[in-house]
C-alpha cells in the first residue's frame, strides 16, 4: 500500500507545484491522475520515487518511509517501484530481451550487474512477460526496430520484471494512436489486476482514464480537487478540474463506442 500525507513541493524557482497531497492507494487499485497542464501531476509522481525531492510531507510504501531514505536505501526502495514512461526510456541499441532484463539490474550484486549475469529465473520470467505483452517473437530484435506501441509493451514488461510493489506510470499513451493507447492501458490494468499491484497513471486523456482506472484523482494548481470513482466525473467535476468547457460535446466527439468497456478479460494479444 502507498500512503501520502500532506506532500508538498515548492521548486527553487518559487513554483508551488503541489500542496498537501493526501491519499492512500491500496493493493491492486489503478488510480488515474488527471488535471490540466502544470497542475502538478508529474511532480506528484516524481515525488513518490524521489526523482523530485518533496519539500515536506510523508510518503510511505508498505512499512518504508520514502522521504527519509539515504541514497543507498533509496536505491533499494526504487527496486520496489516500477516506472513506465511516455518516451519508453529503452536502450535503443539493446535487444528487447536485454531491455526487459534491465528491470532486474537493481537486484544483482555489483559484479553480476557489471557483466549482466542474470539468473535463469530472471530470464525465464522475462520470456514469460514478453509472451504476456504479445512480444514473444521479438526477444532478439533491437529496441530501435520496434513501433511505439511495441516499445511501450517492452517498457511494461521491464517494469514488471522488477516484481514491483507499485507502478508509477507517466503519460504512457501520449505518443501513441488511440487504438494502441487503449491496448496499452488495457495491458497495464490487467497486469495490476493479476498481480494485485497498485498503480498511479498520469494521463491527459480523461476518457481513457475513466475507462481503465478504478479511481480518479484530479489535480488543479497543485491541489487535489477530486478523488473518487470514474463514474463520478460529472461535467461539473471536470469544470472544477479543468475550467469551463463543453464536456457533453467533447464526450460525443471522442467517446463513441469507448464507454463502459470491461477492461478485464480483453484479448491482450491484439497486435500493436
Ligand atoms: N524543475 C522545475 N523547476 C521549477 N518549476 C517546475 C519544475 N518542474 C515543474 N515545475 C512547475 O511546477 C508546476 C507543476 O508542473 P508539473 O510538470 O508537475 O505539471 P503537470 O501537471 O505534470 O503538467 P503537464 O501535464 O504539462 O506535464 C508548473 O507550474 C511547472 O511550471
Automatic annotation (TrEMBL):
SMART domains linked: AAA
Tagged with keyword DNA damage: no
Localization per record: Cell inner membrane
Name of this chain's protein: Phosphonate ABC transporter ATP-binding protein
Species lineage: Bacteria, Pseudomonadati, Pseudomonadota, Gammaproteobacteria, Pseudomonadales
Domain of life: Bacteria
UniProt keyword Zinc present: no
GO MF annotation: an example: ATP binding
Cited InterPro entries: AAA+_ATPase, ABC_transporter-like_ATP-bd, ABC_transporter-like_CS, ABC_transpr_PhnC, MetN_ABC_transporter-like, P-loop_NTPase
Swiss-Prot/TrEMBL keywords: ATP-binding, Cell inner membrane, Cell membrane, Membrane, Nucleotide-binding, Translocase, Transport
Amino acid at each position: 500500500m502507498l500512503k501520502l500525507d500532506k506532500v508538498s513541493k515548492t521548486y527553487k524557482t518559487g513554483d508551488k507545484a503541489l500542496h498537501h497531497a493526501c491519499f492512500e492507494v491500496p493493493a491492486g487499485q489503478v488510480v488515474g491522475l488527471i488535471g490540466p497542464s502544470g497542475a502538478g501531476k508529474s511532480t506528484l509522481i516524481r515525488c513518490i520515487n524521489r526523482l523530485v525531492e518533496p519539500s515536506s510531507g510523508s510518503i510511505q510504501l508498505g512499512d518504508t518511509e520514502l522521504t527519509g531514505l539515504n541514497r543507498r536505501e533509496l536505491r533499494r526502495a526504487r527496486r520496489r517501484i516500477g516506472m513506465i514512461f511516455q518516451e519508453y526510456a529503452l536502450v535503443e541499441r539493446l535487444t528487447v530481451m536485454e531491455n526487459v532484463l534491465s528491470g532486474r539490474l537493481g537486484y544483482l550484486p555489483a559484479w553480476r550487474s557489471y557483466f549482466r549475469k542474470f539468473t535463469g529465473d530472471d530470464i525465464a520470467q522475462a520470456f514469460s512477460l514478453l509472451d504476456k505483452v504479445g512480444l514473444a517473437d521479438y526477444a532478439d530484435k533491437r529496441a530501435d526496430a520496434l513501433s511505439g506501441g511495441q516499445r511501450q509493451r517492452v517498457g511494461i514488461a521491464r517494469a514488471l520484471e522488477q516484481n514491483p510493489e507499485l507502478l508509477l506510470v507517466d503519460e504512457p499513451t501520449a505518443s501513441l494512436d488511440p487504438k494502441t493507447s487503449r491496448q496499452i492501458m488495457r495491458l497495464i490494468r490487467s497486469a495490476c489486476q493479476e498481480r494485485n499491484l497498485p498503480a498511479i497513471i498520469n494521463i491527459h486523456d480523461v476518457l481513457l482514464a475513466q475507462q481503465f482506472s478504478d479511481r480518479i484523482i484530479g489535480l488543479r494548481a497543485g491541489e487535489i480537487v477530486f478523488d473518487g470513482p470514474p463514474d463520478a466525473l460529472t461535467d461539473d467535476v471536470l469544470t472544477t478540474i479543468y475550467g469551463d468547457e463543453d464536456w457533453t460535446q467533447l464526450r460525443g466527439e471522442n467517446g463513441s463506442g469507448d464507454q463502459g468497456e470491461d477492461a478485464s478479460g480483453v484479448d491482450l494479444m491484439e497486435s500493436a
